[in-house]
Design goal:
Length: 70
Amino acid sequence: MVERAEQIVAELSANAALHGRVQLKGNASHTAHRVRHAGILIHQHALALDQEPAGLLADVEEVARRMRAG
């Protein structure tokens, strides 16, 4: 995860973006990480890929809702 986080921070910095998102396999709750001294906020979402299609679709819709909300 550390390597992925470093890659996300590098990409956000290069593009002067202040928000980024990463989707992970699993069922952890949404969480956000602020990068100190960079003004960057990384949102972490997890999707349980082994669930029924309707449940997965509901989870993807929830991620989309959070993205629209900012």
